[in-house]
Every structure is written in structure tokens, then in C-alpha cells.
Amino acid sequence: MALRHAWLRQYPYSPPMCGIVGYVGGRPCRDLLVAGLEKLEYRGYDSAGISLLTDGHVETVRAVGNLSNLRAAIGLDADTPVSAEGGVAVATPPATIGLGHTRWATHGRVTEENAHPHGDCTGDVHIVLNGIVENHTELRRELVDSGHQFTSETDAEIVAHMIEKHYDGDLTAAVRAAFAELRGHYAFVAMHASHPDTLVAARQECPLIVGIGDGETFVASAIPAFLAHTRKVLGMKNGEIVTVTPDGARIVEVDSTQVDRDVEEVTWDEEAAEKGGYPTFMLKEIHEQPGAVAETIADRLPEIDRVDLSEIELEPEFVRSLRRIVIVACGTSYHAGLVGRYAIEQWARIPVEIDIASEYRYRDPVVGPDDLVIGITQSGETADTLAAMRLARDRGARVMALTNIMGSQATRDADTVLYTRAGLEIGVAATKTFTAQTAAMYLLGLWLAQTQEAWPREKIAEVVAELKGIPSKIGTTLTAVDERVRAIARSHAKRDFFLYLGRNIGLPVCLEGALKMKEISYIPTDAYAAGEMKHGPIALLDESTPVVCVATDSPILEKVLSNVAEVRARGADVIAIATEGNIEVEQVADQTLYVPATDWVLQPILAILPLQLLAYYVARLNDLNVDQPRNLAKTVTVE
Ligand code: AGP
User: Which residues line ligand 1 (CB under 6 A)?
Assistant: First the structure.
């Protein structure tokens, strides 16, 4: 389903981290804010908070955990439905202006101090922020040097102090001046104790929508936060600042140029709004991949030839003398590990072993203090992966968790953690967490090469430059291949078997593409190393077999193409994934789907996209529930 509102699609990515909401109007707003946050909880749920302004005084309540903890902290019984009409406010008299936030931690641990809203030194300015301020280190240093005192470890708190620094009676001007000094991708809303009828918000890459009500105005990360109160919306663009009052909103650019924008009427129902206008969470999450990858690599590539993974708590001596890496994982996470193996071996020249966690834990593995064992698990709760990590740890290995969930069991069991920042994934089939994990493995491979001085800086710089371009290439690929993938899905939706073939770095892409197809379409698939075909699987082929070949550019592309020719000679229908500009592939395949050129080791993060879409459209054509496929659970906490 196409999005009806073009402005929702106009940015290269929209990172799915944290939910923000602000209200100014005539009603007590505490419960309105909590109700809005409940609609945004899918964006993050490790802590939450609200700030209410009344009588020139701001009261803030924050709580670690999901929203039920915040409800308890403000005296709303967890079983009491939140009233859309207001309710007993924390503040007396009830506040009619306030901010709310639900957090998915990026900078700073999950603590009450790090939960939003954040204030300045005076307690007058309060802000909620979604996203990442990339130049937070230098800004914090300057602010501390000029006497500002911080109460959290977050990059977000900087924004409150920046507004304080620039404030001289005009909140919009102060936000504009602060905004001009920030780098990164974020959206924030600011409130000031001296302005009881004004909120000021700004957007740079992260979503921000204004809801125009009757004598009240909302500003939020997403429409569901206020859809129960108004359907009139104003979409914000990058580089814009909006001043919100009960009577409406006034948008300016950072240089003060006034922006005229028409109010639009949203026609979605609530369920469609939660899916951002997409028919399913899975498709929404497929399209969130540019943001998930951008968030994951963002501030970890601070220079053109350097990777910063200072969050990894391993002594440099250990990393330098590392003998071997062992990766353990299940399902899609295992496939991301397979891609990571190629990257680490190629760039850092460290031997990598990888095993399915449920196998590893029972095979009495040889592992010890010279080994780094990496458990990849988006949920951080997969029983087999946790058991494999614990086993390795008991035998003296150092253990790293690569996960998407702060505070998950994997983070508690590991010596150190590397986070993906994909935001909450609701669809059972992993999509954006796969590309975020793959991006994190690339970062790790480069970081190991850099730490071990295994590769020249110029080589690292070349890959860093390519990696930075990946989020926008993901966005363009998803748009470019969509129509053709739908057509291919239409011609193959009723097949009873799909074979996936690839070699080297293309093989994990095949394994992942085949897993996507079987788990959501229930069509049997096999994924095989193309060179292994003639040792058995070639017997499966006939004219009715669609064969998906990953034939992106690589040093062994020629070999892949010979295998494609063998398959074609048996009458199979070849669907090839190739690198843009390589017309050689087109000559041996029946249908070719192109992905943009990049460093060959990075190709999997693009090559998987058409295969996710192919599985998706085949399943939808068969009328299946792609978000909740039969027999599967999002998190597998049992053996
Ligand atoms: C993939 O689409 C599945 N949802 C599944 O294979 C998943 O990747 C596996 O269960 C591992 O989960 P984890 O990453 O949370 O450990």
C-alpha cells in the first residue's frame, strides 16, 4: 500500500528510536501525554518520563522500565485505563502544557537520570529528544567549561543547556541558535517555564509531526500519539523549527525564513497509523532499514579512516593478541554472523569460527582465554544463544553480546556489549535487525583491523566511505526494485519450492533469503553453496523450479556465473541479484534485480533487500499473516 502522505517519504531515513510527544492547549495534559506515549511505545520502552509546566514551575517524573512504571510513579494505577479527557494531574493546578518521552537508549545507560525529559541548570528549560546528537562530546566539553552542570550521561541533555545558553526571552530564537550548532539526526521538543503557552520543536532527519486540534496543539514523533484527538496534521521537514501554541503552529527554517505549509487531513484508522501507513509491520520494518543502519553506524564512524567502538570493554592488549573469534547465534542472527565472518577474516585476518548456538552448546567445544566469543541475538533472550555464551564464558573465553535490546539477558551475561540500534522490531521475521547486525559486524571487522593494525588506513578509509553511503543505498534499492520484485512474486507465488544459490559472501544472503521465504510463505526452500550443486541438489531442478542466485560483484563472480549457467541448462527459472552495471549477469539469468555497487564485502547488506521483498510479496499474494507466521515466536526463550 502506498503512503498517502508524500511528506512521510521525503527523507533518506527515519530512525525508529524513542518516542516524543508534546501538548499545549486547554485541557489537563498529564494523561493525554501518557496516552500519547502508549501509542509510541513501539519506538522504545526502556524508560519513560513526562514534564508538566504549571504556575511557572516544571515538575518532572521519570521511571525506568516500560510505561506501567511511569504510570505507577505518577499515581496512575496500572489497571486504570488512561483517560483521554485528562485526569488528576501530578501538578496542582493541573498543567495544560507538557512533554513526554519513551526511551530506547543510545547514549547513556538505562537509568532514571538518563530518562527524558532533561532540564538545564536553571530548571526552566526542559526537552525531549529522539535521535543522536553526533557532536555531543565537544558541545558538552564547551558547556562544562562555561559552568554548565549535567545530571545525566545523555547527548540529549546538551540540547537543554544549549537552549539555556542562547535564551534571552525568545524561546524560538534560542532553539534556532541551539539547533544551528547541533550535528546529527534528531528531533526534539523544548518547553520553558516562562512560556506557559508555547512549545518549540525542531527536526533533523528524525520524524516530527504537528497535530492541530481545536484550541490545542500536539507535536510528536508519529501520528498515533494524537490521532484520538485530531486528524489535522502538519509534517515537518529537515532543518525546520516549529513554534506551537494552542492556536496552531508557525514553522520557520533555521535562518528564520517563514515556511508556509498546508494542514493535511489524515484518513488512516489507528491500526494503519501504528504501522506508519504500511499494511504490515514487516513492510514498515523493511522500509525502516535505512534508519536502522544509519543509527547503528552513526557516531561510530567519526572520521574518514577510523571506527570508534570505545564502548567495547576489552583491553587493547587482549584485542591485539586475539587468537580466534567464535560466533554463536540462531536463525537470522546466525546469518548476520556468517557475513561478519567474511568481513573479519578479510579485513582483520583473524580466524573466525561460527556455529549455530543450539549445536555449539552441546558439542563440548574447545574454547579458552585467548578466544573472543560473540553471541549475536537481536532480542538478547534466545535461550540457546545465552547457553552457548555462558558455556564459553565458563571455559574462560571473553564474551561479547551483539544485541538490539538494552538490559536484555545477553547484556548481563556478557563481558562487553555492542548494540545495534534498529529500534523495536514487531514483525516475527527479522528484517531491519538483520541489516543492523550486519552493519555492526562490518564495524567490528574494521575496528579489529584498525586495532590489530592488520590493514592500511587508506583501505579502512575506503570501506568507511562506502559504509557511510549504505543507508541511502538501502533506501534507493527498496524503491528501485519494488515493482519488479512484485512482478516476479506474481509469477512465482504458487510454486512449491525455491532454491537459493550463492558462493562466498553471497551464501549467507541466500540462507537468509531462503529463511524469510519459508518462515512467512510456508513454501519449502533450500539454500546451497553454488559450487556444491553438482554434488546432489542439482537433481532437484526442473522447469518449475525458481532458482534465486546471488551474483553480486566479488572476486569469484565468474564462478557463480558458471553455476548459474549449469542451473539454467537444466531448465530452471533463474532470478539473479546482481550489482548495478554488471550486464554479464543479465545474459545468464531469466530475471535480474540490481542493487547499487559498493565494496564487495558490503554487498550482502544490499543484496538481501530484494529477497526480503520477494518473500514478503509471495506471502501476501498467498494471503498469509506475515507479521505473525504460524508456529513462530519473536523471542525464543526455550530450548
Ligand atoms: C528470523 O526471521 C527469525 N525471527 C529467527 O530466526 C530469529 O532470528 C532467531 O530466533 C534468533 O533470534 P534472536 O536474534 O533474538 O536471538
Answer: 330-333, 377-379, 382, 385, 428-430, 519, 635-636
